[in-house]
What does this fold into?
Amino acid sequence: MLVSSDLKKLAVEKGMKTAHNICYGKLNDYMFTVRDINTGRALREIYISTVLTEDVKNKIHEALNSTDAVKQYKIESIELNNNFICIRFAMAMGLMKRFTPFIDWFMPIVAASGAPANVCPECGNPIQGDEVKKLLGGHAVCMHNACAQALINNVKTEEEEFKNSKSNAGKGLLGSVIFGLVSAIPWAVVYALGWFVGWLGALIGVAIVKGYTVFGGKLKKAVIPVMALLVIVCVFFAQILGDGIQLAYYISNGELYGKWSDIPEYMSLLFEDSDYIATFVRNILIGILFAGLGVWGIFKTLIKNVSSVSKTIIDLE
It folds into this structure.
């Protein structure tokens, strides 16, 4: 997300900079980041780079809880990690009226808790003129040059190992097919009962991704389009199966002449009916739409996981 006008104004007020869709700089000697993100909900995030012991974490939690700050400032979430503080706020009307006062109130609390400023979050040692400013995971981080280079080298090594590792795509895709076909059964049953089935496409999409991981498949970029194709195939199969169940029911009740073995012939006759084809295509498209909505977030995360992390660690200045 682009840096909004109110964050640009905040940057000017606090003597910070804007770049790479974030607002960042030194605030009370801490490397400080503010950015807007979308995780399915629009959020504004504060990220403070430091080093936290358990005692410091407890002091910060106590300060936030004792003043009922979560309610007062309408904080969405708080994460106190060993090397950062991350606080998120829901984007809403009047946010800046609470946001800036919160920063002014909270930063002295961070300092009073004993969380060190001007410290490398990677090694925990003080920074004394040998630092670099990096964009790391969308956040501004000040660290020793040697620590930054070691981090990049480690990430590159892990990426290379993952790239050269066996993907087990065969087993994973087998799991996707099995889970996808099984998840088509609820669609078929609900459709045979005459109810709306499009929303069950989401179940098919999620099942395909789940099947891949359960069967031990390691995600590679080439697998994602195959999964997307499997979603379409399984939705198509679910629709065919639903029609087959309906025909089997009519044959069993005597409403249609013949045996279950005649179902393929009846299906071929249905596909000569333009009204049936229109309904069939509509159900397929709605199913694919819901399946896409169901797996979009998953696919987005998967794509992010297989993307090069080392290339996202870049110099800020």
The two ends are 21 Å apart (CA to CA).
